[in-house]
Specification:
Largest sheet: 2 strands, antiparallel
Number of domains: 1
Bound molecules: zinc ion
Number of strands: 4
Length: 92
């Protein structure tokens, strides 16, 4: 899941989390059911240093994970908060 860069054109092996950027998504998972509702779980994706300069990872329900150019991406407030918490977690 997070052993390589999420950019399939790159797929650089993950050695140091300090390099690049981690994206966390709350992914719907029909195989998990909690009291009748579809379940979900957190998925982590990593972009290496070079790719994180150019791309970001987005999750679209039904389509899955997308690696998109950063200049086209618009970060929602929720995502910005998620990424801020990831950055704090990595820094500690
Ligand atoms: Zn990469």
């Amino acid at each position: 899941m997070m052993n390589n860069c999420a950019n399939s054109q790159c797929a650089k092996p993950l050695h140091y989390l300090r390099e690049g950027r981690v994206f966390v998504f709350d992914v719907q998972d029909p195989s998990i059911k909690t009291s009748g509702k579809p379940g979900h779980h957190l998925e982590h994706f990593w972009l290496c240093g070079a790719c994180s300069q150019q791309f970001r990872v987005e999750y679209e329900p039904g389509r899955g994970i997308l690696v998109v150019p950063r200049r086209q991406a618009q970060m929602s407030v929720k995502e910005a908060k998620q990424q801020a918490s990831v950055t704090r977690a990595l820094a500690s």
